[in-house]
Amino acid sequence: MKKYLRAYLISLQETLQRRSSLVMDRLGGVAVMLSLYYFWKTLLSGRPAFLGYSYPQMLTYVLGMNILRSFALTGRGWELVGEISSGKISSYLVRPLNYHGYALALDLSQKTVHLFAALLEIGALLIFFHPPFYLQKSVAAMSLFIGSLLMASLLFFFLEFLVSSLAFWTSESGGPLFFFELFIQFAAGAFFPLDVLPRLLQKGLSLSPFPYLVFLPINIYLGRVGQGRALQDLLISFVWTVVFAAASLHVWRKGLASYSAEGG
Amino acid sequence: MRKYFRVWWKMSSMSLMAQISHPLGSLGFLLGKIVRVVFFFAFIIAIFQHVKSLAGYSLEETALFFLTFNIVDISAQILFRGIYNARRAVTEGDFDFYLIQPCSALFRLSLTTFDFLDALTLLPVLWVTLEILHHLSPSAFSLHSFLYFLLTINAVAIASSFHIFVAGLAVRTQELENTIWIYRDIMFMGRFPSGVYGPMFQFFLTFIIPIAVMTTFPVRAFLGLLSWKWMAYSFFLSTMLLGLSFWFWEKSVRQYTSSSS
User: Fold this and answer.
1) Is residue B110 domain-resident?
2) Greatest C-alpha distance within chain B
3) C-beta separation of A74 from A114 below 8 A
């Protein structure tokens, strides 16, 4: 456990060291947040609610998206693809560590930095623009929200790991990963609430793990999901996480069995 | 000119072959690009199932803003895909070879990596745009259609100036990724009409980083909502930015001392 904590701390320092990259990463998120903030603000002006979201709830959904994107939808998929394709992964395989644990430690360090950056951005937006903000006061709802946030982060980690592991068999895994990253942002509700979509599409997505990544956690925060239902959804999210963790580990083992590298 | 076309043709054929030889990767990138356009388009349509207008614009008009953004954004990416490899070309020494070749180094660096995946994405966008334009104004050769076409070309010229500036920066500082991503990130705001944003951001998007001039002005001109004053500003801006970017590029190349071994 100690070595993973050390890996987490070193990666944390490294992420903070590359400040310009971090700022650029964040700028993209801020541009998305501001665009959607103004979009919904304009759409809801003169309307008390839209699709059951009150004005403060919808604007809070936009701000919440920034947190979920930063904590749940941030990952190291491209690094993993690069490490497998270049053979750099070999150097980790000979070390006395579990690669999934190591990757999770690095992933968590990135998420920590991005989460704090997202909170700062939201704080700045609240100070400068004074948007009506939906503050969740219920301790139970907040606990469920934090639980769903952690579960979403784990679920995304295993989903991304699974897709990135394609690199064991093909040098073209960048394409599928690119598609996965874009698709998941829409299917998870990281651009707009899924309630906006036609009912059939909503039903289809509800059978997938994607809404548990962004849409569900924000709706729990907004109090739009009752506590009983939230617990049930959290359980489903847990089952999805276990399924994808098992799939990811299985594919990883298969990939390692077919992996070969030359040189040092 | 013929020589440039031959070089472009040859290099583009090679790009196409490279993309065909990586079918899985290319399919993934193509699907990703299509998903990005289709989902946002579906989002706009879905929104208009519940409201009649957005910032005073109807569904077709709002869709036209979004599609115009895509035309400008994708066109710039098709033409200037090579810019994304500019830093590598400079640091690995390829740029030194471009300088001794008998054609413009800027042309060689930026225009010769034609992205067919973007071109494939652009085709349905153009088709839907033409359908909407025809629906909004059945007369194909009206003055407003002509102005839309002209201002869209003008927008691609502005996008080109940004890319040329970034290429100059890559040659000068070997830094690139950050600058091009600032542009791409802020470009996200062009998906919606600039009227959606508050006065401060409208000013920023019109005068500081003129995304609104690139994505909102052509549609406003088509709808007859853009005054001649703003059109003149739009053409003046593109001329000035293109001039400045070429000047910066020339200056960067003159100061270039080769950075590879």
Assistant:
1) yes
2) 62
3) yes
Distance CA A75, CA A191 (A): 18
In tens digits, chain A (264 residues) has pLDDT values of 888 899 999 999 988 887 777 887 788 888 889 999 999 999 988 888 888 899 999 999 999 999 999 999 988 899 999 988 888 888 888 888 889 999 999 999 999 999 999 999 999 999 998 888 899 999 999 999 999 999 999 999 999 999 999 999 988 888 999 999 999 999 999 999 999 988 898 999 999 999 999 999 999 999 999 999 999 999 999 999 999 999 999 999 999 888 887 665
Is residue A78 less than 8 Å (CB to CB) from chain B?
no
- Please tell me if residue B36 touches chain A, with a CB cutoff of 8 Å: yes
Please list the residues that pair with A54 across neighbouring strands.
Answer: A49
Helix axes B143-173, B59-79, angle to 10 degrees: 40
CB-count burial class (<10 Å; 0-12, 13-18, 19+) for A77: buried
Spell out a b/e string for B81-109, using b for 16 or more CB atoms within 10 Å of the CB, else e. Answer: bbbbbbbebbeeeebeebeeeeeebbbbb
- Choose the closest CB to A197 out of B25, B35, B46: B46
| Chain A residues whose beta carbon lies within 8 Å of the beta carbon of residue B36 | 182
Which element (helix H / strand E) includes B103? Answer: none
Partners of B54 in the β-ladder:
B57
Residue B68 corresponds to which amino acid? T
Count of the separate structural domains present in chain B = 1
Q: Which of B28, B188, B195 is the closest to A178 by Cβ? A: B28
pTM of the prediction?
Answer: 0.89
A105 within 8 A of A4, measured Cβ to Cβ: yes
Domain span holding position B222:
2-255
- Asked if A182 lies within 8 A of B24 by C-beta distance, the reply is no
Q: Would B103 be classed as within a structural domain?
A: yes
Q: Give domain status of residue B261, yes or no.
A: no
Residue of A nearest to B33 (CA): A179
Alpha-helix residue ranges (DSSP H) falling in chain A: 2-17, 19-44, 55-71, 77-86, 89-93, 99-129, 139-164, 174-187, 199-206, 215-221, 227-258
